[in-house]
Amino acid sequence: NATRRVAIAAALLLPFALPPSKAQAQTQLTVQHALPLDSHTGVGASTFKTALERLTAGRYRVATQRNDNEREMVESVQIGTIDCTFTSTGPVGNFVPEVRIFDVPFLFRDATHARGVLDSEIGQQVLGRFNARGLVGVVWIENGFRNLTNSRREIHTPADLRGLKIRTMENQVHMRAFTTLGALPTPMAFSELIPALQQGTVDGQENPISVIVANNINQVQRYITLTRHVYSPQVMICNPAMVARLNQADRALFQQAAREAQAANRARVTADEDAGVAELRRRGMTVVTEVDTAAFQTALAPAFAEWERTLDSATLRRIRDWR
Ligand code: PAF
Fold first, then answer.
1. Measuring CA to CA, which residue among 259, 191, 264, 227 is closest to residue 39?
2. What ipTM describes this predicted complex?
């Protein structure tokens, strides 16, 4: 009887043991994202995975992996060792300079403005620029608006920031902004941030509420100021050779899965921003809500003048005027 049971079990498992026939052939994709799976970026990546696997009835399988070094992820997509990444624009301007326009501080009024511009022809045109750099820009997702944390003091004005070492992303526009505000920007990958804060290599950092909550930055930083000094887009980037292998119908399914990922990511950022400040207070952070935003904008005047010259000023104007 035992022999019979083993034989029946083996027969039931047989279809799974057989190599897939041509009709059933599966394509494996690897998608990397920063931060834990249970974060706005993890939710974006896992929604893409579930959607693509569902839409293609399992012909595509997606493996999601965490990697907190975003520059490394973009390089891996470019050389094809991974297929796609969900990354902030932090390091992306070093590959596709046109992206830098979206990293300008105080450019977007709120999430509706930012999402509207990125989904409009302006955002789509910038996605089109990735091709010339050996990358495919698929869809804009986001981190939300960035805020400042530090271990030293409450920050209300640019004067309070003077002399503080602030970790920034490897992003020219952000570094220029912090230098102009009198801080000492120290660029590094996110994977190096927690030890740098623990060891006092830097006094502070800046990230959206979604990131600060997901990564427990409250454990190494006492003060948070709700500066909302810059919107932080994320973008899904894929390897061009992989995209070229998709037939037309699969390309449409791929886009649909990316749009589902975008909706899930944005909904999660909205929820994190709604609940996150109270959560950070509960975790013991001192939350500074009184921010002299006008003083920060005035102090940034020399940097704004430089970006008018070095970035596409006509598009900057179109973004500011967008309603
Ligand atoms: O600070 C960064 O490097 C980015 O905001 C992060 C946390 C990797 C998310 O894109």
1. 264
2. 0.99
